[in-house]
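Record pair follows.
FIRST:
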Amino acid sequence: MKTTLSSKLALTLALGGVVAGVVSLLPMDEGSRDSGLIGAVVAAVLGAVTLVLKTQLGRGLTGNGALKAMMTAQGLAFLLRLVAVGVGAVILKQNDTMSLLSPRGASSPFAFVIAFFAVSLAQQVLETKSLLAGATMKVIS
């Protein structure tokens, strides 16, 4: 069964929604809950962007070109996630003193990072399956 990009995007965003739902049900203070929700949403949106990026870079390529495109896309996705989680954690740590994002309580970079990577890990599996399903590479022995 071949899945379309739109169904993959819907699944990627749904993963963020599931993690956000779990975060909202966990017993934690409101600042930590807000941080976790922000992490889940940021990861869901970033996952959608990287899925489109990976799909577009690998479109119509075969052989070594496809492998190079997939590795480039994987590297760019990792870099985007690394920058996003770093910037998000720093902003939330700074927010402890400013109370801009979560005036209800101290924000938690830990909750942000955990929620971010919970979504990202599930998205990595989806992205890798998507790339492998669409790849037509000849293995050289």
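SECOND:
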Amino acid sequence: MDRKTPFPNSHSLGNKGNLGASTLDSSLLSYPEFRRLLGQEIKRSERYCEYLSLLIIDFSSLVKKSPLSPKERVEVTINIGGRIKGSIRETDFVCPLGQGRLALMLAGTSREGAEYLASKLKESLLPLLSPEIAEGDGQIKAVVTSYPEEGNGKQNLLRFINSYLLLG
């Protein structure tokens, strides 16, 4: 298999065309922009008594054990983030957190809704990865936190995201 094609089965989350692009997918947010929007969404959620959930998809144990270079691992993460962004609502946001980690901000979504999405994404991601990644001994993890269900304010949600940045 050509190492420049990390997604042999492009049907699971929709077809986005060329998957070898090394630039940040324009549908994904940078971390500073993600933090800025998270602050706005928390204020909106507080004001209108709406849910806000954060979901971390972590497949870093798979990509870090693969034969791919660090640059290729980042490309895989960005490409998967673009696929996920293409399959969720326009009001939701995706931000790469490094090699094999993505953060999703799900406005108006309860913890149960975020956990359901997490289970569907975990099922859909493995077939997207090339055999050299998918056959590794790692796993795909999903972690969810929600506001206001867990009493999380802005600082706790930012700590939640930052804890995954520090693992990278």
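COMMENT: The chain has one domain: 31-167.
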